[in-house]
Amino acid sequence: MTQQNVVVPDTTSGVSLTVSPTPAQKKPPPAPGGYISISRRRRVLKNLEINGDQRVNAWVESMRASSPTHLKSTPSLSQDHNSWILHHPSALDMFDQIVDASKGKQIVMFLDYDGTLSPIVEDPDRAFMSHSMRKTVKKLARCFPTAIVTGRCKDKVYNFVQLAELYYAGSHGMDIKGPTRSSKYNKDSKAEAILFQPASDFLPMIDEVYQQLVEKTKSTPGAMVENNKFCLSVHFRCVDEKKWSDLARQVKSVLKEYPKLRLTQGRKVLEIRPTIKWDKGKALEFLLESLGLANCSDVFPVYIGDDRSDEDAFKKLRDRGQGFGILVSKFPKDTSAYYSLQEPDEVMSFLQRLVEWKHMSQRARQNNFLDEEDTLKLEIIPSPSMIIDRILGDSRMKMAPCQLPCYKFLKLTQKLQLWVRPALEVASRIHSCTAVDQPKKDREATDKGVTLIITSVLCQS
Ligand SMILES: O=P(O)(O)OC[C@H]1O[C@H](O[C@H]2O[C@H](CO)[C@@H](O)[C@H](O)[C@H]2O)[C@H](O)[C@@H](O)[C@@H]1O
């Protein structure tokens, strides 16, 4: 067996495990990011000094550490989480600070797919995103240039997302394609012509290794090899933990013949990629260049991801000193992201608030904060029925909270012009729902007649 170094960055360790024949590499260089206690790190490093067989145990140890679900919730874990969240606050809690930091800048959105737009499931072929998430991302792409950056192959993730107006960077950023439907940000055909595949020479090797891994791992129940065109994934989410060392040996026995491939870890998955200097961080920079924003000081890139490969993009944003990364995780992980969100549902809430903020700030700028196609949620504070009847005639609005197509509301305000404008002025500064206390029974109509409190503006556009 030729002696090859196979780098297995431990997804949660602070070290890259360089499995090497020479004991000289006992102290692997500190790897980017990684969350592992000192004691576990010492144990893992100790494994490196033991003979080859036991080195595989180091792999299994890091495979185990790569799946936080193994972390039983204990008081120390919740203390860890509390201190971690202080350094990586929720992007939802920090929303106002985030949008303030983006004022006057061009936001560009970069979204990982698995674990960010779609929940993690056992079967990779069934990792569907919800309809409401798709609707949200579609609206987001009308507000900001938006790219999907994923380990999945481009065609596969397009079949999941089904939005032609987005940019796609599949195979961990090694397969970049511009939008195939024009939108506000890609009117000219330049965007649609974007196609960049820096690892195209590796295609025959990837296919060859794919076949060998399928053959080699078929004896391990639950193991699944996924071909993502310029990279491969060996899934062990459904493999009995007692079989993980067998699987690690099987993968290692194939890769030892391919020194131009490297092994990294993701969420219960072994990722096999070409050793070219390209990753999601490089893909982010390439896309900013494609948008003509790479040297623009007013660009504000936002990258949302959940896995080890997204750290390359988080670090890129820190290096550039622009925008920020948001890690999607329920558990503390060492990360270069600034903020955190717990799961895809929180990602959707964050994106929805971004869309709402964009529309409200557009209207505030145009001093015309309501669009015909907006829908307003109204809470009508009861007032003497005669006013309501006189103003609204028989088209009386329900007294309960209701949704009213805005064009009807705008016609209404022409009648109520004198009375509603103050409420609308207030509404234009409201980014989201305001709490409306229960109308008091004895509330008298003010001298301005009916009082309307707009609880939120749902932007239809
Ligand atoms: O860059 P990403 O979009 O996050 O892709 C990373 C890997 O995601 C997928 O695997 C993960 O999601 C699966 C479905 O939820 C889950 O079964 C698996 O355990 C996770 O690791 C995808 O299948 C991989 O090819 C990607 O590399």
From TrEMBL:
One Gene Ontology MF term: trehalose-phosphatase activity
Protein's GO biological process: trehalose biosynthetic process
Pathway(s) annotated for this protein in UniProt: Glycan biosynthesis; trehalose biosynthesis
Annotated InterPro entries: HAD-like_sf, HAD-SF_hydro_IIB, HAD_sf, OTSB-like, Trehalose_PPase
Taxonomic superkingdom: Eukaryota
Keyword check for Hydrolase: yes
Enzyme class per UniProt: hydrolase
UniProt protein name: Trehalose 6-phosphate phosphatase
